[in-house]
Amino acid sequence: MEDINVGETVCPTEHPDALPILRIDEPTLQMTFLVNNSPFAGREGKFVTARKIEERLRNQLQTDVSLRVENTDSPDVWVVSGRGELHLSILIENMRREGYELQVSKPEVIVRLIDGVRCEPVERVQIDVPEEHTGSIMESMGARKGELLDMINSGSGQVRLLFTVPARGLIGYSTEFLTITRGYGIMNHSFDSYQPMAQGQVGGRRQGVLVSMESGKTTQYGIMQVEDRGVIFVEPGTDIYEGMIVGEHNRDSDLTVNIVKAKQMTNMRSANKDQTSSMKKPRIMSLEEALEYLNDDEYCEVTPDSIRLRKKNT
Predict the structure, then answer these.
(1) pTM above 0.85, yes or no
(2) Using CB atoms within 10 A as the burial measure, which of 11, 41, 196, 313 is most buried?
(3) Among candidate residues 43, 38, 106, the one with its CA nearest the CA of residue 301
């Protein structure tokens, strides 16, 4: 049956009594999906054209009732709305495993005008954590404009906390939450209501990034030259291009670096030439971490083999 949706009732004509329609939560988060146009476009993906990507997104709508796909002025750009980061990241992960190659923008909340006031979605969050982590959780949620509704102590060392938090405050919070609770915390959230937008910054990244100024393969020598400037995201021998994000800067500004630079070979000998040089372990991001990390002027390039961060204007 082609024109029936989830929650509708199929019944015999002599008993046309429909069950109540299911209430399906509206999307609260949206991302821009684009055809990959980076210097490495088409290298790793099997399906890279706008027609193939749009076909895949339309097929997803048949089974995913909370998903919305909207066309834009550009034929190779779509606005995809879902119920949260996890909802959209599962779709992206499935697409890359099937051989699709695409780019996505930073997740953004869907803002609505209600009685002339700009309102944002607010989530009701339930957190179960060991008692010793309660203070850290309340502090981190407070920094994201979370409001504590209730605190229930079970008496067995576990505490249940109930919050209302702006949906944009939960973007990127899952990684921080796992770190704070050392993996012992459980978090669930569901849509609560639309409320007037909270003032000031809610969540988001405060550090700048290290951006490659050259294309080529990264070298250990090049990486070690810039290690003191921040945290590196790539290993030696990785193919990179100009404008690709290769690390996080220690400061809140972006910095262009050259990590494809090779050591010059000369006949000169050094007194400490036999000393072993050690390199810090790079931070390799998963898809969820990469999506959480994005800023407004950045894209996440997703292919079957790689996840890369890049600046939009390259």
Answers:
(1) no
(2) 41
(3) 38
